[in-house]
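Human: You know discrete backbone vocabularies at least as well as I do. Show me how you would write down a chain together with its backbone fold. No explanation is needed for now; the record alone will do.

Assistant:
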Amino acid sequence: MNWVDFLDEQNVRKQLSTLNPGSEAVFGKMNAQQMVEHLSAVTQIANGNWKVDIFVSDDKAARRMPFLNTENELQSGFKASFLAEDPNELKFDSIEEAIDDLINQVAFFVKVFTDDKNRSIVHPFFGTLDFEYWKKFQVKHFTHHFKQFNLL
């Protein structure tokens, strides 16, 4: 599997730079910019900048979290229950602005976990995750959406 190293800014920018407003998805309802903004928004959960009021029981988390240690991918049709049925309205005026925001959110992601080594944040599907598990999730999540737009 060719996993996306979401921490490699240069490579992420290079791959995302091939997108344009007309880029077609292989699956799902999002357009290219919505996908980039979605990756940024989910990163904001880990950063503590988007409070998703979701409780994941310890039982569910215990069943789901081992998936993050596997080589398995997120399924093509996977959709988190906290997301709206239709994609969000665009936040930025261009895909380039959305990419810049995503890069900034990833940098902030690294900073907040570096500043607080004991930090853990509830993921709306997998439960409470520390930095290592958030990174595992992000690799799977970025890979899933890069494949959505044939970027891999």
Q: What stands out?
A: The radius of gyration is 15 Å. The beta strands are 120-123, 127-130.
